[in-house]
Amino acid sequence: MGLILCMAADSASYLTIPELSVRVFSSEELCYCILKYPLLFLEDFLDDGVFRFLGTVTGDVRFKAELRDMKENGVKDEEIILRILEGSGYCSSAEAGQFRSRIQEYRRLSRAEQLLKKAELLFSLRRFGKAASLYQHILMLPANEGLTENMKCRALAGEGGSYANLFLSEKAFRCYSEAWEIRKDPEIMKRIYFLGLTEPVIGIRERYLAAAENAMDGIPEDWDREYEEARQKAADGEGKKKIDRVFSGDPVMRARRAEEQLRTWKQDYRTML
After folding, report:
1. Are 159 and 136 in contact (CB under 8 A)?
2. Buried (b) or exposed (e) across 165-179, using 16+ Cβ within 10 A?
3. Helix or strand (DSSP H, E) at 240
């Protein structure tokens, strides 16, 4: 995310965007987020709280009233979003037109494809709990919403990845297995194999590894190499540096750093939900 400074007088007014784990303090910051992650704002975002925030930070009560009237009169959310972008002076008419074209292209997709794109965005933002819930919703869509077998496989694999990141290995294994039944993609079985390598519980670990080995008639050599490279990269990465910093220095500072790091990890985990 970029940084946009706001006046101190405005700092008491902010809008929380849970999917991004950020607070925005100006209309410009909100517009920046909208342009960068439009799929997060096209549904279930616009409400009176958003309109009040914009009225406060822009100092334009009429702007707030205009947006509220548009919503009450059934104007499409994307049209209101476009009005916010233009009314805040954040983008030119040409830029607003480009944004409109992007949204129109998105709206031409089937409902299932639209939701898949949003779920995959949430996953990329590490909002694994929200992503898993959306993947579940996608899998329950009726046939007339455009849900194909390929999309089911994508949704199941995405749901499995979400659960794996939440340390819910049994749920992840179930989703991956269902995805494999739809499409015998080695990439899916590789995820099951990696799930087994990271599973600490004896018995469950062997079950995952055996499932992958039986399905593939032996484990490809490059899988172990890829896993080892990823493990080594993680071991030498920023996470290890943070741990080293925690345990360096005098005992009092070590205890303080450990407490701060634990608090950070808890916050990181909460943002997954």
Report:
1. yes
2. bbebbebbbebbbbb
3. helix 238-246
Contacts for 203-206: CB closer than 8 Å, 24+ residues apart = 204/169, 204/170
The residue among 128, 142, 215, 141 whose CA lies nearest residue 171 is: 128
Question: Distance (Å, rounded) from C-alpha 260 to C-alpha 257?
Answer: 5
| The two three-digit tokens of residue 249, written as one number | 């220095």
What is the Cα 201 distance to its own chain's centre?
28
| Token pair recorded at residue 181 | 């039944």
CA 217 to chain centre: 35
CA distance 28 to 89: 8
Kindly report the backbone phi and psi dihedral angles of residue 16, in degrees, each rounded to the nearest multiple of 5, phi listed first: -90, 135
Supply 192's token pair. 């099951």
pTM above 0.90, yes or no: no
Torsion of CA 58, 62, 63, 66, to 10 degrees: 160
Give the number of other CB atoms < 10 A from CB of residue 131: 27
Among residues 39, 179, 18, which one has the least CA distance to residue 114? 39
Q: DSSP state, 9?
A: G
Walk along the chain (273 residues) in steps of 10 and give the mean pLDDT of each run.
Answer: 46 84 92 94 92 91 93 94 90 87 94 97 95 97 93 97 95 97 96 94 95 94 91 69 61 63 51 48
